[in-house]
Write a structure and sequence with these properties.
The complex is a heterotrimer of chains A (about 400), B (about 100) and C (about 300). Chain A is α/β, with parallel strands linked by helices and about 400 residues long. Chain A has 13 helices and 17 strands. In chain C, the strands form two sheets. In chain C, strands 1, 2, 3, 4, 7, 8, 9, 10 and 11 form a nine-stranded mixed sheet that branches. A two-stranded antiparallel ribbon of chain C has the order 5-6. Classes of the chains: A alpha/beta (about 400), B alpha+beta (about 100), C alpha/beta (about 300). The structure holds thiamine diphosphate (TPP), iron/sulfur cluster (3 copies) and magnesium ion (MG).
Chain lengths: ~400, ~100, ~300
């Protein structure tokens, strides 16, 4: 079949949905492969990427046998030198957990999109939710430092996909793009910049002239950012990766001290690169006496609630988290000292856990599950209640 | 490492006691019964296999290929190989003539 | 009598006191030497299979070593990739094949070789194997069939013969075992061979032939886990098990290729052991469907306008 070559970056103004924007972001970032298994509400991504990627000269965009295969194929392709992405929703994200653990352990750059839907189990397949927040950080066994970003608009779906790839490449770690179904599906105006105005960053590679025999795939000597340069298969470095606790050569060694050193380094690596992760967005925080913390679609509702509150004379503010993991703890600590905190989310209360932990005081939860975000009225009521305390 | 050289054919057979796990496969599958357990134990505690009758060895590689631990192997003596090749050529030429 | 006694004497006269050079195993360059000795029990067939693979890539195929990636899953066999000094990856349990598929699709010039266990590839990872075979992805799968889950201590695997005693079938295995080669063929493998670890050279040659084949090639290695399978079934040690393989193997010949692959069931009698192990090259499709990466390239022609 003959297909017409399409531009990699669709510069200009479009009226599209979030899923579309994610695919465009990924293609602009330069993905070569995409592997996934269809699931609502992420199917649209899968469908659109299989149309777009071959037409920009990408190697392959495929439906594979299941989500476990897709995440492991992504890891393989990344080790072979590709930028890769996979996309799924709750049940598939659960299946990917063991593979994601492997990606954290082997420091494999890749982006995994999770368009959240109602759960547990099959739950509300086509309805929106924010119930996978904890799974991102605690879903795979053991300790690992997750990185996750949550957009709240179609524009941000595009922008943050590029950011997610840049972080993933720079930190040598998987990055989760954690959306609620609503942001994936809603239509908005989106502005795609010119190709040359996009900042695309690729992974650190062994410098030219590196001795192939002595190269170590996880060696951080001389790397201030604690990120080891990454060699690829087929380049003669004889690299080795394993999910087992390993030395900087990649060779496994089951040793208590080594394990501790390795896991601490992974945490430190993610922490030290903090400047790369988008900061929370602040609305009316200067004089706020009560602050709502929210992400994604709930944050849009919350912003309306803050505006309504201000109208009524209540000094309310909004802190919208964009980077949801690592959790912006300093900011919460600071805000908690001068204001009451409210958390608005589409779950029984997941985001409120780290908020309360760092606020070191009880915060008020405005929760709504079943597919609709907490309404501005619900959040406004919460703001008032929290203020009165 | 213990090195034996075949008295006529000059190739070497090497046993590496640091790698041997004493499974006995090489001993059992040697068609000429050349190998045997030594009285030595290596530092991992395995009783190691050693060459006992190199004269009988026919360089069949059975020991090298049965060994799961890369602990026994043959090293061709290139010098002798070359000599043998020359000899062979000579005899063939003689035959022709 | 006296003559025999004489041959049993240890002859130290051939020992070389000051060897003329430093000797090393012919495959030392291809081993991660610091990882040797392996974790394997003495006499385990996995080590022999690793050697057969190294022999294959050294002697019987021209594929540049730089283009080979050895991938394994979890299990005793799973550790194989860590001992081989090539590009390698030790994936999670059952997922060596999808990892390898990712590598192959991203870099079609690379030849992924999977060395993994029967449990890893045919229990937890069975779905992936079927799909990789169906897609005819250009990779070589070497499965070590030792009839058991070795690493975890000897629980029954989908390859454990009926009646066999294992840690989790203390009254004898009830369900039927898989015929791995048949499964691979049925799902679309375009090359398939089976050998026991006793048949070293044919095995090495078959591995190379499988690697030279473009498309999904499958090599089943019947191996001895005397420690966790043999011991509980009175099969003796590594030596006894390999002698049994030698006796039980029934070699197919070149002319049987592509014909009798459906007559390859392994026979096992409780209390006796393996009584029949058909080995040989079962299938080699010459007019193969084009392998996957090539099909991707051929699938669409991009019009630049
Ligand atoms: C998801 C998961 N489940 C279970 C295990 C435990 N496990 C490790 S190896 C193994 C079986 C290995 O058997 P096989 O593949 O036949 O390899 P062998 O040890 O026999 O070579 C199991 C069940 C695991 N590592 N991961
Ligand atoms: S090469 Fe053959 S004859 Fe010689 S020791 Fe080894 S197995 Fe025995
Ligand atoms: S086969 Fe190898 S490990 Fe086993 S006894 Fe012989 S030399 Fe030692
Ligand atoms: S348990 Fe079995 S398969 Fe594992 S190393 Fe020992 S003999 Fe080999
Ligand atoms: Mg097994």
């Amino acid at each position: 079949m003959t297909i017409k070559l399409q531009p990699k970056v669709l510069t200009g103004t479009h009226f599209k949905n979030g899923n579309w924007a994610i695919v465009e972001g990924a293609i602009a970032s330069g993905i070569a492969e995409f592997f996934a298994y269809p699931i609502s509400p992420a199917s649209e991504i899968v469908e659109y990427v299989t149309y777009r990627l071959p037409a920009v000269g990408g190697k392959a965009a495929f439906i594979v046998e299941d989500e476990i295969a897709s995440i492991n194929m992504c890891i393989g392709a990344s080790w072979a030198g590709s930028k890769v992405m996979t996309a799924t929703s709750g049940p598939g994200f659960s299946l990917k957990q063991e593979g994601l653990g492997l990606a954290y352990m082997t420091e494999t750059p890749l982006v995994c999109v999770n368009i959240q839907r109602g759960g547990p189990s099959t739950g509300l397949p086509t309805f929106s939710a924010q119930g996978d927040y904890m799974q991102v950080q605690f879903g795979s066994h053991g300790d690992y430092p997750a990185i996750a970003l949550t957009p709240w608009s179609v524009q941000e779906c595009f922008d943050l996909t590029i950011t997610a790839f840049n972080i993933s490449e720079q930190v040598r770690s998987p990055v989760i793009l954690l959306l609620d179904g609503d942001v994936g599906r809603m239509m908005e105006q989106i502005e795609i910049p010119k190709k040359e105005d996009l900042v695309i960053i690729n992974r650190k590679r062994p410098p030219p002239g590196t001795d192939k025999n002595s190269f170590k795939q996880f060696d951080i000597t001389g790397q201030d950012d604690l990120v080891p340069p990454m060699a690829h298969f087929g380049e003669g470095y004889h690299i080795f990766g394993t999910g087992l606790t390993h030395k900087d050569s990649g060779v496994p060694l089951l040793d208590e001290d080594l394990h501790s050193e390795l896991i601490h380094r992974l945490y430190k690596k993610v922490e030290i690169n903090n400047h790369l992760y988008p900061k929370p967005e602040e609305y009316y925080l200067e004089d706020a006496e009560v602050i709502v913390i929210a992400t994604g679609i709930s944050a849009r509702s919350a912003l309306q609630a803050v505006l309504d509150a201000r109208e009524e004379g209540l000094k309310a503010g909004l802190l919208r988290l964009i980077t949801v993991w690592p959790f912006p703890k300093e900011q919460i600590e600071e805000l908690a000292q001068r204001a009451e905190l409210v958390v608005a989310e589409m779950s029984m209360g997941q985001l409120i856990w780290p908020v309360e932990r760092y606020a070191r005081k009880p915060c008020l939860l405005v929760s709504r599950i079943g597919g609709t975000p907490p309404s501005p009225a619900m959040i406004l009521e919460g703001l008032k209640k929290a203020r009165k305390k | 490492m213990e090195v034996h050289q075949h008295p006529e054919k000059k190739y070497y057979l090497i046993t590496d006691e640091s790698r041997c796990k004493g499974c006995g496969l090489c001993i059992a599958f040697c068609p000429k019964n050349c190998l045997g357990f030594s009285d030595e134990y290596n530092d991992k505690g395995w009783r190691v296999a050693k060459m006992q009758r190199m004269r009988d060895c026919i360089k069949c590689y059975m020991c090298e290929r049965s060994c799961p631990d890369f602990a026994i192997f043959i090293d061709e003596n290139e010098q002798t190989e070359k000599e043998e090749l020359l000899k062979e050529e000579k005899t063939q030429e003689e035959k022709k003539n | 009598m006296t003559a025999k006694k004489k041959t049993n004497e240890i002859d130290t006269s051939t020992m070389v006191k000051n060897p003329p050079k430093k000797f090393h195993h012919p495959y030392d360059e291809l081993l991660r030497k610091y990882a040797i000795p392996t974790i394997y029990c003495p006499g385990c067939g996995i080590g022999t299979t690793i050697q057969a693979f190294l022999e294959a890539i050294t002697k019987y195929t021209d594929i540049p070593h730089e283009n080979i990636v050895v991938i394994s899953g979890i299990g005793c066999t799973g550790r194989a990739s860590g001992y081989i000094n090539l590009d390698g990856f030790h994936a999670i349990h059952g997922r060596a094949i999808p990892f390898a598929s990712g590598v192959e699709i991203a870099r079609p010039d690379i030849k992924p070789v999977i060395i993994s266990g029967d449990g890893d590839l045919f229990s937890i990872g069975m779905g992936h194997l079927a799909h990789a075979a169906r897609r005819n992805i250009d990779m070589t799968v070497i499965v070590i069939n030792n009839s058991i889950y070795g690493l975890t201590g000897g629980q029954d695997a989908p390859t454990t013969p009926v009646g066999a005693l294992t840690k989790t079938t203390p009254y004898g295995k009830i369900s039927y075992p898989f015929n791995l080669s048949q499964i691979a063929i049925a799902n679309g493998a375009t090359f398939c061979a089976r050998y026991t670890v006793y048949e070293f050279t044919p095995l090495a040659k078959a591995i190379a032939r499988g690697m030279n084949h473009q498309g999904f090639s499958f090599i089943e290695v019947i191996s001895n886990c005397h420690v966790n399978f043999g011991r509980r079934n009175n099969l003796g040690d590594a030596i006894a098990m390999r002698k049994q393989f030698k006796k039980a193997r029934v070699r197919m010949t070149e002319k049987d290729i592509n014909k009798d692959w459906h007559k390859t069931d392994i026979e096992f009698k409780v209390g006796v052991g393996f009584t029949k192990i058909p080995t040989g090259i079962f299938l080699e499709e010459k007019e193969r469907p084009i392998e996957f990466s090539e099909r991707i390239v051929n699938a669409y022609e991009i019009k630049k306008s």
